[in-house]
Amino acid sequence: MAASSAKRTLTVRRETFPIRGTFRISRGAKTEAHVVVAEIDDGGTVGRGECVPYARYGESIDGVAAQIESVADAIAAGMEQEELLEALPPGAARNAVDCALWDLACKLTGQPIWQVADLDAPLAPVVTAYTLSLDTVENMAAAARASAHRPLLKLKLTGDGDLERVTAVRENAPDARLIVDANEGWTLEHLKRFGDAFARLRVELIEQPLPAGQDDALLGFDCPVPLGADESCHDRSTLDELRGKYGVVNIKLDKTGGLTEALRLKRAAEEAGFDIMVGCMLATSLAMAPGVVIAQGAKLVDLDGPLWLARDREPGLRYEGETVFPPEAGLWG
């Protein structure tokens, strides 16, 4: 569906990409990645952005598409990023439109994203984590064995049985760095039970152990493994609530509502003393590409979404093992 003026036209597309096998986290499993793409055509020059509506945040494919379409007239009239921040709330819809505007700006000016975004240097390759989907101890052990050559593994966990899962992964990937993600699936008792053991297993980060909104229990809690905020951290407005609970914030464009707010959140989080992790949803290289911008200088990078797909879009990002290369103009930015 599109709305147009003499110059700019906003188009929304729903797309589905099959996943290799099944991807499981504590909240459920999926076999397909459903994405929404916003395209802004300015006289034949097209900027694109991709987002993933997330039910955890009350989003749906149709709802996000409708949100994007709601700003079509404003885009046609020349809306840019600053106005978009006021027009749409943080979330997937704003992300797709915001990233399409950045891509369009790059194409219209002939400049790469690092110059358009006023960064200090060209984008450099980054090393991404590779995610091991939540599964039985035996299956996660086998997955770890197959991925033992990768330098950084991210384990999806759920609660009971997680110590056995992490132990099995460590035994089968003895040299890999490990981070774990409970996706809000633990209680404080789980954290107390697993903390020391995970430290001995050389786990470097426990991501979102408790449900967002219930993590005041972390105040004053001394965990031997650093804690990271994912579902508890969306944009700058959520940053103050994280103090004293977490040492790491996971920035995802679908949470911040685009690259514009993500850049500002990263700067504010660093100034507040947080370490930066950059994450992603299950999506194609078009969604990962602006994440590479945020990943510059980040402590941890998790941009492996396309590696889980049976097919990525063409052209896509270049992955060489665990190394993700900056996007080329044919993809984004």
UniProtKB/TrEMBL annotation:
Domain Mandelate racemase/muconate lactonizing enzyme C-terminal: 137-228
Keyword terms: Isomerase, Magnesium, Metal-binding
Its EC number(s): 5.1.1.-
Entry coiled-coil feature ranges: none
Pfam families with a match to the protein in the record: MR_MLE_C, MR_MLE_N
InterPro entries documented for this protein: DgoD-like (IPR034593), Dipeptide_epimerase (IPR034603), Enolase-like_C_sf (IPR036849), Enolase-like_N (IPR029017), Enolase_C-like (IPR029065), Mandel_Rmase/mucon_lact_enz_CS (IPR018110), Mandelate_racemase_C (IPR013342), Mandelate_racemase_N_dom (IPR013341)
Cofactors, names only: Mg(2+)
Cofactor, free-text remark: Binds 1 Mg(2+) ion per subunit.
SMART domains (alphabetical): MR_MLE
Family: Belongs to the mandelate racemase/muconate lactonizing enzyme family.
Designated name of the protein: Dipeptide epimerase
